[in-house]
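User: For my dataset I need records formatted as: sequence, then structure tokens, nothing else. Please produce one.
Assistant:
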Amino acid sequence: MLKTFRISAILEGISYLLLFSFSMPLKYWANITEPNIYIGYVHGFLFIAYIILAVFFAVDKKIAPKKGIMLVLASLLPFGTFYMDRHYLKPLSAS
């Protein structure tokens, strides 16, 4: 479960950054909308998968509600999932 959740966190973070740093500028500055559509679909799927996995992970590992909320909120911030992976999930995989 931990490995799957870590992979989903990294993929969700990458899709979030691609959406805001690549496809959104193309859409609004160059009027090229196609990349935004496809990257948006992928990001939407990965975001929902991340949220579902975060809830299941928190319940499975009996994580405190405050940390569980932090796992979910990390997906709303740029680089948030990378931060959570490095400072919270990676140490769990070492033990």
